[in-house]
């Protein structure tokens, strides 16, 4: 059995994580359970290598409000926020591109990118999550083992229908610990059904609420505190993040050092994800974060050298933007990154569980970049 924290970001503002509410925990547990169902041999993982298979949210203050958008052909039933959410565009396959070749080309593109750091790192993220179990509903919780029981977690009860939640959040993460950080959550939150049959089954079940009032409420959150990120088990400041090596060999050694430290804290390698998967999970967050062009290029080169990375060819992200997908399978799921071949920017992250080709969770990076004022956008 995976610990809940193994399904969340390897890199995120750690101080804000502590402010998440119960609804955030509910959504996190829901995705955890999705991953657990695919594991043949359950195992307990201490708070060591945090990985995203997983997490609907990045900045977690009021995180419960940032639920998530509808799939193609979905039937929307409730929502709120700043206008209609875009439909989830199906990924379309083209001729596969060799993963190593593409990642090395992305490295060259990344290191040529002109970047001038500002006061705040801005992100606007759309999140989409598929829900299939009772504890995904507001006010429900994941079944817990009875006190003193030697048995594992009780089997979660499946809903007679599937529903999808989507929404957006914005964040301005201050580079200086003296500046204020801001997040806006609950933007355009809505729930929907992937098919009319799911909607009909939901009505037969009594049409229960799919989103709580808190989920649907747009919330502006300010933090007058230094914001720290997290790589594995270690917290780092934004400046430390931007001082990561720009040489692939040096970055590889740094990530290996951090991984081995997490292994020791976890009590051995059997309690953490394999190193290539750890690298993949860390890369997903680093590529979407305020790292330097040199570090981004080095990271692409590190990824190119990992076994198990494959190309899924040309695809469309959930907003319909064209990119190239590279993915890696791991404990219980397959993680895919959609990268813009022209800019080497990360367009989307998708987590696949099962063989139906539909991601159980996706995060789309609508806009990222440096700005010099709160509420300014790149």
TrEMBL record:
Region (Disordered): 136-160
Record's keyword annotation contains Transmembrane: yes
Superkingdom of origin: Bacteria
Transmembrane portions of the chain: 57-77
Entry keywords, A to Z: Membrane, Transmembrane, Transmembrane helix
PROSITE patterns for this protein: TAT
Name under which the protein is recorded: CU044_5270 family protein
Organism expressing this protein natively: Actinomadura verrucosospora
């Amino acid at each position: 059995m995976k610990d809940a924290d193994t399904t969340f970001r390897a890199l995120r503002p750690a101080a804000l994580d502590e402010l998440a509410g119960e609804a955030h925990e509910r959504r996190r547990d829901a995705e955890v359970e999705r991953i657990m169902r695919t594991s043949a041999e359950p195992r307990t993982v201490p708070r060591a290598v945090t990985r995203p298979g997983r997490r609907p949210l990045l900045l977690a203050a009021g995180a419960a409000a940032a639920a998530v958008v509808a799939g193609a052909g979905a039937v929307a039933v409730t929502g709120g926020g700043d206008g209609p959410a875009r439909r989830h565009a199906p990924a379309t396959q083209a001729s596969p591109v060799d993963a190593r070749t593409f990642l090395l080309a992305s490295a060259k593109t990344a290191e040529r990118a002109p970047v001038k750091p500002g006061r705040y790192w801005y992100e606007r993220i759309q999140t989409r999550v598929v829900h299939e179990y009772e504890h995904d509903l507001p006010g429900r919780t994941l079944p817990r083992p009875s006190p003193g029981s030697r048995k594992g977690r009780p089997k979660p009860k499946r809903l007679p229908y599937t529903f999808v939640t989507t929404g957006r959040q914005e964040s301005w993460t201050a580079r200086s610990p003296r500046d204020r950080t801001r997040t806006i959550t609950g933007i355009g939150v809505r729930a929907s059904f992937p098919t009319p049959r799911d909607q009909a089954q939901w009505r037969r079940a009594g049409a229960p609420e799919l989103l709580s009032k808190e989920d649907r409420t747009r919330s502006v959150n300010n933090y007058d505190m230094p914001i720290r990120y997290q790589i594995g088990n270690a917290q780092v400041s934004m400046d430390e993040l931007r001082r990561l090596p720009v040489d692939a060999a040096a970055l590889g050694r740094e990530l290996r050092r951090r991984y081995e430290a997490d292994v020791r804290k976890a009590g051995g390698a059997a309690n953490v994800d394999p190193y290539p998967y750890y690298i993949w999970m860390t890369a997903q967050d680093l590529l979407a974060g305020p790292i330097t062009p040199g570090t981004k290029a080095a990271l692409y080169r590190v990824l190119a050298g990992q076994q198990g990375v494959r190309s899924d060819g040309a695809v469309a992200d959930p907003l319909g933007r064209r990119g190239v997908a590279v993915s890696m399978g791991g404990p219980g799921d397959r993680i895919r990154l959609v990268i813009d071949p022209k800019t080497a920017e990360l367009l989307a992250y998708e987590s696949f569980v099962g063989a139906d080709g539909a991601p159980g969770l996706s995060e789309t990076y609508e806009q990222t970049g440096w700005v010099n004022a709160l509420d300014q956008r790149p």
